[in-house]
């Protein structure tokens, strides 16, 4: 039986425990939910464009798979583990298992929207986070075990961090941590998980040699993915105000400004080395700026957003060199952009958060950061960042190694799959028709070559050296 729904004289929904839910705010949060949803395939296109074309489709597929798996996980117990009102300081319980008692009850985020609206909005954050992380598996993983990994990782990593950050019972929330839209739960947790995944999987075949060219196969996809992400980020940050008010507007303004400055700064840093105006560099910087402004977007003014963009575009750009320094293969620089960018954003929030900006919604009261002479805020932000980094890295590593000792759940694919591509080996489908045509023509060419030598047996296997030459030619034509 559906619960009774009543309205006050102005037409707003009446809350069960008194007060009203503003229908304009509900509409804004639901619209923001749709904006954040479009970011998830945006991540897929962004990642896909950066990969070689024989692995292009699998990354777009993974973005949609993640939405489906996390949607079920969130319904099953994810929302309850993160936001149950009787949670402890670290994680919730199963009071809201299968979304029991999640409808017209007051939400954990705002008294102006009901729990069911808050639930579906937070689902989008839960879905995009593992998608950011599993970009680290690109070009060298089995797709089946990722279904299990996403479900388990969301349960054991994302849900606890979301609980301690945003649930009023969480330790960071109680301590006074400021994270408006997901610096730690989304970006630090996913970026650090990507590092753990990269270390576990090891390097791609031939990585670090001159034999194989690892260049973006489709820069248009990179730009398209960036457009989806930038567009959706207005809902990601602006929607986190959970109300259509001045604070949401300010969050949208600083989001756009930080992305713009971050893109320009990263591109200029790349120009100094290559003397080329890199579209990939601009897009990478824009994403870094968006990541950095995420925890601060509801707390800082427009001048601070310029500094956020500059620092993100600079620090994250240089952080991409960490993989060469420490010799790990972070395929898509996820740790540099998201984990490092999230830490930059968290720390700058401790410096530039303002009580006046946060209070623009008429509800929120905070002591501010260093600008408001609240000097301990930087220490709180540092503690929150360090906790997210360490917890995500350790727990992700544990999950990966437990799965490793269950043979059918091992993530790393075999060498043959790497040679022919994950799309062909794991999906039997391709992003482009000519990838399949080339796969058919190569054995036929080998057949003709061997036939002239007197042998009539076709060669249906591709040696590593032959594949390398074939791939080098394909990449050269794409470039």
From TrEMBL:
Cellular component, GO, one term: plasma membrane
Domain of life: Eukaryota
Chief place where the protein resides: membrane
Alphabetic keyword roster: Ammonia transport, Membrane, Transmembrane, Transmembrane helix, Transport
Subcellular location: Cell membrane; Membrane
Domain Ammonium transporter AmtB-like intervals: 27-432
Full protein name: Ammonium transporter
Residue stretches spanning the membrane: 26-47, 59-77, 113-134, 146-167, 173-197, 218-236, 248-268, 280-300, 306-326, 338-360, 380-402
Region (Disordered): 448-479
The keyword Acyltransferase is assigned to this record: no
Bilayer disposition of the protein: Multi-pass membrane protein
Single GO molecular function: ammonium channel activity
Family: Belongs to the ammonia transporter channel (TC 1.A.11.2) family.
